[in-house]
Amino acid sequence: MELGDKAVGALLTTVSLAIFTYYTFWVVILPFVESDHFIHQYFLPSEFAVLIPVFAGVALLCFLSVFVGLVMVKSKKKKT
After folding, report:
1. What's the CA gap between 68 and 80, in Å, rounded?
2. What are phi and psi of 43, to 5 degrees?
3. DSSP 8-state class, residue 80
4. How many CA atoms within 13 Å lie on the side-chain side of 46?
5. Which helix (DSSP H) or strand (DSSP E) does residue 54 occupy?
6. What is the four-CA torsion angle of 37, 38, 39, 45, rounded to 10 degrees?
7. How far apart are the C-alpha atoms of 36 and 56, rounded to whole Å?
8. pLDDT digits (tens, 9 = 90+) for 16-56
């Protein structure tokens, strides 16, 4: 089982590093590249550079709120 955990950890680390590199290049470097350069075809429009993290943050906050609410409801049921 330990080998499986290491593989999952390595996969998550690799995916996170790839997303971080893509987003950093998209937000920091791409605005300084000419708009007719071929590299722009591999990236979404720059408006999404703000919308995607905002949506992900709102979704995370909603998920955490629901999770904390469910834990509170279950712990209250156990006491009574």
Report:
1. 19
2. -125, 150
3. -
4. 12
5. helix 48-79
6. 80
7. 30
8. 999 999 999 999 999 999 989 999 999 999 899 999 999 99
